[in-house]
Amino acid sequence: MKKLFTIAIVLTPILFQYKSPIPGIDVATFIFMLITPFIILRSTINISLCPPLFLFLTYIMTGGLLSIGLQGAVDMLPLLRMGKFVFLIFIVIFVGYKKYFDFQFGIKVLKNATLVSSVFIIIQTVIYSFGGIRIIGIIPNLVTSDQHAMSILATSALLAGEGYYRPSSFFLEPAMFTQFCIIYLAYCIFKFDYQDDKKDVLYSILITIGIVMSTSGIGLIFVAFLWIVYALKDIKKVSNERRGEGVIFIIAIVIALFLILPQIGFIQQIVDRAFSDADGGNAVLARMIAYKYYFDLPFIFKIIGMGYGNVPSNIYFNSLAYIGYCTGVIGGIFLLWVMIYSYKRAKMFQKMLCILFTIMIFGASVFTATTICFYFPFILYQERSVTSLKLKQSVNNNYKK
Fold it and tell me: Which residues of the chain are modeled with pLDDT < 50?
């Protein structure tokens, strides 16, 4: 059960893309539904793992029901979305996590899945570049939303016909590939504060290449951020004189990259997609439209939100706009509390994940049960385990002496 629970968490971003035997339920949710009775019978509720997140879930339920009541119209779809969101996070984080999540085994599974995904996206790029053949890494007929999958594949084919290929490995979109791989990249680069293992350098380079080849704009930001922070962190270990030289060198490299990268056609395509209306639309503008819907809300609903999942159809909401529209200012305050609480109790690896997750809130759709259930087991792990691991290492060292 422990391995099944851990695998389900690690592979959630892939599994949730596909249909389960139950209509409207994805495979990831289906697996957690199956194992929930066993988890509940053998586990206890552990709110202390992250009290702000528990209170946030409580507000999403109570505030959502209050908002729907004030609106005077009951729509079952938002209620089902809200129920799924609260159920998955509660079962994974507050019931099953403490007893059934195996961090070390989870990292091994994540490592293999990330490396395979990165190698595959490199293969996709190479084969398209030399043979003009697009390899698809998903099974369209099994995807939860056939219409969404077909739309993405059609757009991808259209862009490829214009010379702009966006591989996505085993995911529907390049951004989803980046969100999956970035956790293990951060782990390879930073791990925990007390670890100093350089054997994962090749893995880090491979994953970085994969993310860059995905043409994901947020992916480029993430890899640049992680490597710059890593370089600055290493500079602290040298003398003041060498430290100054290192800082000057990094600044020179950054300036050179800003001057050189825009001249590369591959990078220019990413920039064009983000800031112009060419090649499939302005990605930045697409992420701003939803804010208009929030600002048009009556004052009371700006404060309490419209209820989780109760959003206009066919409109893209990034996470920040989604949080504002669905949970209001109160929900935003709760989420800020969750991230600050998690960051303060984190080690270096988890601090990077907190920062990356916060960045994604502003530009991606990560305020979902599947994404939270994927990220937070790794973010929260050290709160209960790093101290005991240090103690265990200390005992072993003393025993050897």
Answer: 158, 194, 260, 263-264, 275, 277-280, 383-401
Give the other-Cβ count within 10 Å of 313's Cβ. 5
User: Cα–Cα distance between 315 and 293 in angstroms, integer?
Assistant: 10
Half-sphere exposure of 401 (CA within 13 A, CB side): 6
Q: What is the pLDDT of residues 161-220, one digit of tens each?
A: 555 678 889 998 898 999 999 999 999 988 865 455 667 788 999 999 999 888 888 888
What are the tokens at 115? 């490396």
Q: How far apart are CA 280 and CA 324, in angstroms?
A: 27
Length of the chain equals 401
Q: Residue 65: is it exposed, middle or buried by C-beta count within 10 angstroms (0-12/13-18/19+)?
A: middle
| DSSP conformational letter for 56 | H
CA distance 92 to 8: 10
The packing angle between helices 103-131 and 2-10, to 10°, is: 40
- Spatial separation of the C-alpha atoms in residues 372 and 322, rounded to whole Å: 15
| C-beta atoms surrounding 20 within 10 Å | 19
Q: 18 has which bridge partners?
A: 143
Residue appearing with tokens 């995905």: 214
Q: CA 159, CA 58: separation in Å to the nearest integer?
A: 43
Residue showing tokens 């590939």: 177
Per-residue DSSP letters for 249-287?
A: HHHHHHHHHHHHGGGSHHHHHHHHHHHSS-SS--HHHHT
Nearest in space to 196 (alpha carbons), one of 234, 242, 247, 236: 234
